[in-house]
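Incident log, structure service

09:12 report received: a user says their structure output differs between two submissions of the same chain.
09:20 pulled the input from the user's history:
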Amino acid sequence: MAAPRPTRRALAAGALLAPLSAAAQSPPFPSRPIRVVVPFAAGSATDIMTRHLAIHMQEALG
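09:34 re-ran on a clean worker, output below:
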């Protein structure tokens, strides 16, 4: 048995209901500040690189 072809009503209903799924989406990432913890002494090479990386992450993530 052949499947019935979609009618205009079905397509119209799908077009009208599709925007409702946008309300169920999660909020944009990040929704709160990101804390970066460096377990080494301040001023070490790891600390300096992480601070430099955090600046670029802030520009990229907003």
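09:41 both user submissions now match this output. Likely a transient worker issue. Closing.
09:42 reviewer note: The chain has two helices and no strands. The mean pLDDT is 83.
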